[in-house]
Sequence to fold (1924 residues):
Amino acid sequence: MTVITPPPAEKKVTAADFESDQEVRWCPGCGDYAILKAVQRTLAEVGARKENTVFVSGIGCSSRFPYYISTYGFHTIHGRAPAVATGLKLAQPDLDVWLVTGDGDGLSIGGNHLLHVLRRNVNMQLMLFNNEIYGLTKGQYSPTSRVGTRSPSTPLGSVDMPLSPTLFALGAGARFVARSVDTQQPHLVTVLKRAHAHHGTSFVEIFQNCVVYNDGVFDEFTDRSVAPDRQLLVEHGKPLVFGKAKNQGLRLKPNELELEVVTIGENGVSVADILVHDERNRALASLLGSLHPPDFPQVLGVLYCNPAPSFEDAVFGQMKAAANVGPKDLDSLMRTGRTWTVGG
Amino acid sequence: MTVITPPPAEKKVTAADFESDQEVRWCPGCGDYAILKAVQRTLAEVGARKENTVFVSGIGCSSRFPYYISTYGFHTIHGRAPAVATGLKLAQPDLDVWLVTGDGDGLSIGGNHLLHVLRRNVNMQLMLFNNEIYGLTKGQYSPTSRVGTRSPSTPLGSVDMPLSPTLFALGAGARFVARSVDTQQPHLVTVLKRAHAHHGTSFVEIFQNCVVYNDGVFDEFTDRSVAPDRQLLVEHGKPLVFGKAKNQGLRLKPNELELEVVTIGENGVSVADILVHDERNRALASLLGSLHPPDFPQVLGVLYCNPAPSFEDAVFGQMKAAANVGPKDLDSLMRTGRTWTVGG
Amino acid sequence: MSAPTQTPTARVPRDFVVIRFAGDSGDGMQITGSEFMAETALAGNDLSTFPDYPAEIRAPAGTTFGVSAFQIHFGAGEVMTAGDDLDALIAMNPAALKVNLKDLKPGGVLVCDLGAFTARNLTKAGYVENPLENNALSEYRVLKLDVTKLNAEAVKGFDLGTKEAVRSRNMWTLGLMLWMYGRDRHATVEWLLKKFAKKPEIAKANVAAMNAGHAFGETAELAAPSYSVAPASVAPGTYRTVTGTESLVWGLVAGAQAAALPRVVMASYPITPSSPVLHTLAGLKQFGIVTFQAEDEIAAMCAAIGAAYGGALGITSSSGPGIALKTEAIGLAVMTELPVVIINNQRGGPSTGLPTKTEQSDLYQAVYGRNGDTPLPVLSTATPSDCFEVGMEAVRIATKYMTPVLLLTDGYLANASEPWLIPDATRLPKFPVTFRTEPEGFQPYLRDPKTLGRVWAVPGTPGLEHRIGGIEKDYDTGHISYDDANHQKMTDTRAAKIDGIANDIPLQAVALGDDHGKMAVVGWGSTYGPIHQAVRALRAEGHNVSQIHIRYLKPFPRNLGDLLRRFDRVLVPEMNNGQLVSVLRAEYLVPAEKLSKVTGKPFKIAELVTAIRSRLEK
Amino acid sequence: MSAPTQTPTARVPRDFVVIRFAGDSGDGMQITGSEFMAETALAGNDLSTFPDYPAEIRAPAGTTFGVSAFQIHFGAGEVMTAGDDLDALIAMNPAALKVNLKDLKPGGVLVCDLGAFTARNLTKAGYVENPLENNALSEYRVLKLDVTKLNAEAVKGFDLGTKEAVRSRNMWTLGLMLWMYGRDRHATVEWLLKKFAKKPEIAKANVAAMNAGHAFGETAELAAPSYSVAPASVAPGTYRTVTGTESLVWGLVAGAQAAALPRVVMASYPITPSSPVLHTLAGLKQFGIVTFQAEDEIAAMCAAIGAAYGGALGITSSSGPGIALKTEAIGLAVMTELPVVIINNQRGGPSTGLPTKTEQSDLYQAVYGRNGDTPLPVLSTATPSDCFEVGMEAVRIATKYMTPVLLLTDGYLANASEPWLIPDATRLPKFPVTFRTEPEGFQPYLRDPKTLGRVWAVPGTPGLEHRIGGIEKDYDTGHISYDDANHQKMTDTRAAKIDGIANDIPLQAVALGDDHGKMAVVGWGSTYGPIHQAVRALRAEGHNVSQIHIRYLKPFPRNLGDLLRRFDRVLVPEMNNGQLVSVLRAEYLVPAEKLSKVTGKPFKIAELVTAIRSRLEK
Ligand SMILES: Cc1ncc(C[n+]2csc(CCOP(=O)(O)OP(=O)(O)O)c2C)c(N)n1
Ligand SMILES: Cc1ncc(C[n+]2csc(CCOP(=O)(O)OP(=O)(O)O)c2C)c(N)n1
Ligand code: SF4
Ligand code: SF4
Ligand SMILES: [Mg+2]
Ligand SMILES: [Mg+2]
Fold:
């Protein structure tokens, strides 16, 4: 195998260059369309090379994604995309790999692989399309569905506590954890660009509306009428403020590990009291990730980014170091240890 | 099936009552022996009924545990004990189930099931024997092995970041997370009793010494000479102090989400500055769980305990509510909807 | 061929008819078909139906991949398949025509809604020219009706929005077809009133639409005749229609009751086409059935094992890829000898394959697909209603022999439906289980000397505390044993236990024809219907051919080998690349020949007739 | 039988000898055995060895389940098994005696270390009386030597602790046995000096211990004779001993080089007895081999697939339960037609079974055990050195035909060793792969018209961007296709591709005897040695019997059916409950008979001879 180093992109690429020849077959109105557009835009903006880019996915509506992108793509089996992608990176560490998974694919059947790819920090962008439902198999509840979700398999409502993808990722040791919303194009593109720039596994949870089986489940913070008051878009080094008037903020309760919402200008609260976002602080990311409307805003953006060497770096570092150790060719390898010769 | 409600324990049970007739076959000196003793003691102290108690395990040295306990036991397959135990509880929710797993069994192949049993909060005690190695298969590194672990499969040292079982469990939504050490009998028994008393999945990480493949890996905080200065044994409502002289403590850095070690009586630090343990605070548990010697103490005891309804409660609550809904017998079930009769 | 005109009153008698309703996913074709089925069942015909959903959840309107169809085959005699070619096709839009026309018989009736043949829809369907306006359809009896408009007029007196008005045009079409085949409308009216009880305006409009369609047939001079199909002569009793899924689920419930097990734990992970088993059981909590949507198929299988260990009937269900994942855990169930019913709703393979298409290519996996010498019983289902009996039988064998049982059904049977003579639940067989309670002499691997089934000793029982697991166990004490002779004995015992089931199942019967002769056509699973009809047709032609259909695939019935040897030739049609044929050859050394079809679709009767005839004649 | 005395100088000539060194896990029996093996190899004998480790990691000292043993079979002629019954047994403690005595031939030499036969050790081993002090051993030539004491004296001049002194007694025993069979000591001395280079005192003490044992043999009047075993006549060249693991790994490396693949990605998850493949490859980074310990077997298989997609050779290894877990992903590899070598180191099943014991019961799983019609090539290994060739061949087939290949080996072969004529790497065959680079006319499922292998188009190649996956693909474009005819075509093509490999492998040869006759004894895998010796013995008795040993299990060699039909009877000895026999019957309709052994242990030559003879004579 020769890893073909692609020539520098000769002309500026556009989002349209990343459209494949396949007819897109999601339900009309599905949030996946918007994500597709955002990803194609991101690829254009980062100047991605088609031949060097690979989309790997599992199974689910979301996992059909690779068919619609004109790069290399591998639609694998349910839940296993992280493992396939890891193998691919061990064959060709220089490929630019994007992983697409769903809340069922990534957190139900594939939870273990997601856990380990995050722990290992394999260098790739990992997008989890969270629609809090199994779309492709017609609407069963998923590990992120809220308690009480009525679905074909839970006609009286689901009873198990949902997982928080963000808290799971942080618990798994992820070094980059971000969140965005399918239809918030500029924000999503910005987050994806950050994910792409990050070296290591970049975990991005994307709230995605399934119009057929879980329509409007994120409306409480994505609906235009409430979004400004219900979303906190974090930026590193900036105070954690939100609200239409940008006068709401998060404050750490004195001497307690809990956050509270305060209003700047009321009860003597000033901007100085507001916690400043530090994307390298895991504890903060974890606290921010656990906030939910209506009592708190939904926190979006890069919650955590704290780079560490990637798995491939370490693996190929060792490969390099070992390149000249031990028998160099097959003949000498087979002759290590005791041999004896019978005259002929 | 009739769930046989066992008669009340007639006589006081002792630890010896929980010894099975099987010869214990761990390596001489293995930490598993001490854990076995502590569990047998715990069973005696909580007055467990043999016939009502079941130990379920996966595969590994640790998972041989059920053979050595005189209750019911199921030595299942690698990584799947949580799923088997969940099924068992759905058949008989009143059984007292203990789950035994290892760092390989529970966090490598079985990571997904561990994740979901914790998320669902199935009522059982889950003991993870963490020896940071694969014992049974002769010493390969595990997902909790530290970077650089030389093992048969990583002759130049492992390169992947280890998982923290505690942070993983918290990220998974566990409602009870505790830690103890194989040979610290009174502490371990106390923790196991708390786990037993807790309703829901009680996750207990036990640091266990593998004398053959990873001897002394926890010495930095378990060795008698350093233990008092390197262990912080938490208690709910008590300040987080440690050290031989009990004059070291953990303080929250002002307006930051970080802990620091301070000495009481130095630089104007008083007991009042020390953070008080609140086992219902997930963020605190997560911060405590991420501390390690030498810069910080290793935190042991019940890091987090915040009860919520168990999975069985919810499932059987629904069963009860639905008991009188819909067709009551097979005949009427088969006759729901349209039928027609052909005269004979 | 041009369509002859005729007077509307003279109905042409027909013995068997195949109709397909096809339209966009949003056009309500499944409902239309179901109502036609209900009226047809009530008219006393035998019937069989098959829905054909698009692979996509909700494809854009008007596209060919968004077409949804419902086929019904009904007649004055025994009906066993959803039918080969169509006598009539209802195409609600150009895409439906495009996709389905190839199945319409020459001279068949084609109903098209002119109103939907817009330029836009034609383009979406990939038509360059409007087929209604050129000669493309000359060999059919085409009814070009502007159903959209006719229906709009019919419902304009009601307070409906445009969308709702358009939506009811399926009822107009239904009315027309009910007229065409001389069916009643009562049941549909009743159903509409009940369904839209809270929206009486909609109910009434739909009824009006249907009546209008019916009236149109009666009054208009159509380019197609109307037909009559006499009732079939069926056994007396109360009937309903069932899909394979319903009947299977009820069979499992009946089995659990026969085994006197108050608790069933069904653990599954969704997968097409198996999910409906989970969904249906999830609605039966009042029968003591706990359903558990596990995190994956491995967990589902393991939870079923845990439940069986706890004294419940363990059930799990999936399709090929999911069954593959369960393989390791199935081995544990074999080793610990616990009763779990494992349902495989087969679909097109390999890998993800063709998830929405039917196939029977998981037989190898069922019979052979495990590590070690790991035998277990394998049963299969032949028709939607057969699923009931097989479901019960799986429970009987699992609990009596303390073993996992693999039940093979498929995507076709899961969704197909047919009339079913509802059994009297109180008269079903009983096979109550016994749980061990006596500590005296107890060992965990004690066996019933007759069945070789292990004792079922359930946690919670005082004095029976013991340990089991996946490592080989001592034959006598049940402790872990690495002893060589013991491993041989246990391996032999596990095999003997499963082989012994052959003495506890019916002898293999001949489904049609003599028990000896020139050729036996041997099948299993959902090919029952087409093979039956094909063999019947060939016998009517005078061919010496019989049908043998195998329910018990492991172990085979005791007499199967002898039976096969009584035929000069054995032909095995399968919707796979030749799996049963290879198992039969290995077992009986009979030179069975394969007849494969791997297209994701059931055999057609005609293609079987041709294939078998050509072999009979060579 | 009492042992005759004799002068120490007269060596009794022997053609073949079987010796077993047995002691506590801490007694260094593996090292002792290996050194004896090395000296024996250097003496020019053919040989075969097998280590027998305890199932427990480190059992308490002195227990029967803590006994570790090493067996060597050597001789003046061809040696192909580790031997049946023992000519000599060295028992370093009572537990070793207890466990191993049953295998010693009547009249065999038994060396016991008196010093270890303490009351405590006797009790631990379960002896009520000391067998050295009653009549229990009267049928053997027993050498009761206080090795502990004799050795202590030999090493007392060195600066050793008591523990270290006791530890060296294995070298004393080695010295004695080297003397008994007239072996040299040079190589061992060299090895000791190298091993303990940093602890010269220990090195010298060990050498002294060995020399003392040797001298003891020479000078003491022993109750047993000494022997001579002439060198075997072997082909000229440079030799070494190899285990099946080493030879397999080197075969894979050789294969990757022959295929001109600079990168190999081996992804695995530890499991007994397969882990050593991972361990050995992990030490070969300089050959461009990346090893990856995945989180489980599924991930390992998937990573191998991902690597193959990326243009590397994908390898994964496991044993039965782990291979079961890989099943679903193997289907993906079949569907995407990517080259992955899947190694199954078989062990005792079902389920966890007997992890440390050998068996060959995963053949069904290999050949049939997948959902869908999912064919793939299956190869097997016959001897430790054969693993090299089969390893290479697996790579050749995988890359040439773009397919996963299943390679079946077993726990016996993994650990057994034998001398191997080291090949000249430069003379090995070459089969370089071609990666597609030309965009013109590219389609992802383009096939080589001869092999039907798919193109290997690797990410990173400009202009070849495409999408693959587990859903059925269009034969021409490679796009997703639900088309019925296409599915049939793809199913047929996948089958034809694998079947076609039959034209690219050697015809089936007869391993021993004529190519026709009264009986063919047909085997596969590690039963090669015992079957070979058994057939040879029976032929020597005048029986008309031949041996056929099958390496290619799927597809079978083209001539296999004809060959089998040339024999009146076909007998298939297997370490399973009859798996190959059933595949052969299905394929060729030959009335092959099964001969099963499922004890976790290899066939003994003698038991095969008896079993075959009794069938020949009936
Ligand atoms: C082994 C296996 N099990 C189950 C399935 C069926 N299946 C396909 S997608 C899916 C869930 C998809 O949910 P999610 O990942 O949330 O994707 P979405 O469709 O919601 O985008 C399931 C259960 C499968 N294809 N393979
Ligand atoms: C499916 C499967 N894969 C692999 C194995 C081999 N195996 C047995 S135990 C084990 C790891 C044990 O590690 P851990 O859980 O940490 O237990 P420990 O022995 O350290 O107590 C492995 C890989 C197996 N038995 N089954
Ligand atoms: S089912 Fe939901 S997630 Fe799937 S394509 Fe339709 S709208 Fe999107
Ligand atoms: S290998 Fe390690 S963990 Fe296993 S029994 Fe021995 S000391 Fe304990
Ligand atoms: Mg989803
Ligand atoms: Mg461990």
Observations:
- Residues B 59-62, 78, 102-105, 129, 131, 133-137, 142; C 328; D 269-271, 297, 321-322, 325, 352 surround thiamine diphosphate (ligand 2) (CB under 6 Å).
- The radius of gyration of chain B is 23 Å.
- The CA atoms of residues 31 and 209 of chain B lie 5 Å apart.
